Amino acid sequence: xxxxxxxxxxxxxxxxxxxxxxxxxxxxxxxxxxxxxxxxxxxxxxxxxxxxxxxxxxxxxxxxxxxxxxxxxxxxxxxxxxxxxxxxxxxxxxxxxxxxxxxxxxxxxxxxxxxxxxxxxxxxxxxxxxxxxxxxxxxxxxxxxxxxxxxxxxxxxxxxxxxxxxxxxxxxxxxxxxxxxxxxxxxxxxxxxxxxxxxxxxxxxxxxxxxxxxxxxxxxxxxxxxxxxxxxxxxxxxxxxxxxxxxxxxxxxxxxxxxxxxxxxxxxxxxxxxxxxxxxxxxxxxxxxxxxxxxxxxxxxxxxxxxxxxxxxxxxxxxxxxxxxxxxxxxxxxxxxxxxxxxxxxxxxxxxxxxxxxxxxxxxxxxxxxxxxxxxxxxxxxxxxxxxxxxxxxxxxxxxxxxxxxxxxxxxxxxxxxxxxxxxxxxxxxxxxxxxxxxxx
Length: 441
Hints:
Elements: E1 2-6, E2 9-13, H1 17-33, H2 37-66, H3 71-96, H4 102-121, H5 125-152, H6 159-192, H7 195-211, H8 214-219, H9 236-263, H10 267-275, H11 279-307, H12 309-329, H13 333-361, H14 367-396, H15 398-420, E3 424-427, E4 432-435
Antiparallel strand pairs: 1-2, 3-4
Helix pairs in contact: 2-6, 2-7, 3-5, 3-14, 4-5, 4-7, 5-14, 6-7, 6-11, 6-13, 9-14, 9-15, 11-12, 11-13, 12-13, 12-15, 13-14, 14-15
């Protein structure tokens, strides 16, 4: 028999694969039960926000395409959201280090709904461009608040699970939103005999669902930031002392974000253009990919416990490459769908793990800043690559853009591993991977 002691609790299970599996499941459930009330409320709110986000991801590009906008213009709107997120990320991080998080969550929820409503209601190029920037700003506040919130309301024991579950809840909501929004748009379009109205009303319903997040966010009991968090500064001394760390956490995210921005926003159009699929079918395929991503997110902490945060991210990113190549060259619908689903699960498994690593490597007074820099690297890269991707696809089709994405994904994996391979050391005594911050500085 084998025994594992945890605090004042002791678990005994038989050795061997079944015993390890049972012990692993019990350990997993035990960590989830540690989630604080604040974390549970945040997860519920983020799921509702995620549902709206996914409705927009699936339908908004199709809505614009139906209105006659080419891929290049659609890329401009995607870029505008990224511009807004990039502009406000660092100011939001500095403010979040001084004030309670709860008002920011409530404000971002309301503003995102208002700006999204205007974009859908007035589909005029310059109006949509301006409000896409504002919507990006409001969503950035929500995104920047997440990392510091989890660090304040969790312990090291369950923290990887918290980050993964946050991402997973948005994926679960996305899975529901993908099926529901596609079916809803098609049904409304059939009823009115106008698919544009179908898209518009389905987007309105998504916005209304996002506003429901106000209820759980309002129930959060957020403490004021600690004195250490209040010391966040972005001056010459801070950059001299920690600039190398900031550069490292941003560069790998910048490269992979550049690759993603070329293709990912246009995958709804990929299935529409290459296979002639209607919105309800596209929504179902997005639901499948979100199920795959959700499964990957839940498995992520298990892999991270076994292989470490860094190695898990690199392994799963590289494993996704063959499936991206299948998407690039395949004109067989079942094969493309299978590649789409598996690639999504593998590639997104590492997203919450990367964010968790960034927060663990950051000092307490810079966690908000580190979270903002990770987001800036991602959204900043999308700001340019989505525009380039739109024009590439418009001129040459999807294969060229997807092949460039594959190259950038491989490059990012190499850079990430070279920067952070020493960030973790496996402790035989603790039977776990231990973060060693000094090895990255």
